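Q: What changes when zinc ion is included in the input?
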Amino acid sequence: MRATLMYGAGDVRVENVPDSVIKQPTDALVRVTSSCICGSDLHPYHSMSRDSGPARMGHEFIGIVEDTGSEVSTVRKGDLVVAPFAISCGTCVFCREGLYTSCLHGGFWDNEPLEGGQAEAVRVPFADGTLVKLNVAEDSVLMPSLLTLSDVFGTGYHAAVQGGVNERTSVSVIGDGAVGLLAVLSAKRLGAEQIILMGRHPARTDLGREFGATDVVAERGEEGITKVRELTGGHGTHVVLEAVGHMPAYEQAFGIVRPGGTISRVGVPQYEDAPIGFGSLFGGNITLTGGPAPVRAYIEELMPDILNGTIEPGKVFDTTTDLDGVPEGYQAMDERKSLKVLIRP
Ligand SMILES: [Zn+2]
Ligand SMILES: [Zn+2]
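A: The predicted holo structure follows.
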């Protein structure tokens, strides 16, 4: 079968690899029908050393169950399923609390070196705890939106939930990538009245307005902080959703959060050390939260609004390709020519 491999920074190839097969009684074998490239795939695309490659890529996919191990009971051959970006057993103490990303037995797709979603097929461990059945046809026009449940929509929603967004909060969103835009949609869904989107790519911020942003701030750094403060009576917003992961975005976040407010981060931090002292968090009684989103916990909650057409998170996909086009897809996303690339293997 064919699959995407990253050999090192900037070097993505589609090659023949051994077929994925069932190995454990709790596995399912899924033939991938839709997959995509994630903003977080761009981090290794920038920095991965050749010594750690080649790595199988992709952690967001929808597909048809082709086979199941003897202990799998919730999905069967022929089912259309969506896979979250984390594997979870569904039964351990953290899964029962809904914190699927801390599952004691599962993990991230990176920990499965022979599997990846940007491929023709995937062996899915803990199929009962990981996969969610989709009751739509394989060729449904809803597929791009349903695919966002595997990561970017659930991640944007997690940011808003962790940040405590409700109808009494004002919200800033830092980042106009797919997660940032879907954090806007999520803040809108949770009732926020003012949603300020910080981003400077007009095609993206236009979609952000469609998703519910009331204001767009293109400026960054001190200028951006001043703009947000002007829009909020000088105080900043109750909640800041940070969907980038780089230090300047974090600095932006504590610059625009209101005293007593919350910074919720879902952009994977590319730093370990960051300010938390009097001038950043402590002085204003600021709460810092966020982390990898347990998207498995949100799929059933978010799916009905997609199925009934209330929301269309799949609008974040602006490019579609087959497997052969995946290397160019990475390049297009890296150069900001594509917002998010949908793959139909
Ligand atoms: Zn992702
Ligand atoms: Zn678990």
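Observations recorded in class: The pocket of zinc ion (ligand 1) is lined by residues 38, 40, 59-60, 85, 151 (CB under 6 Å).
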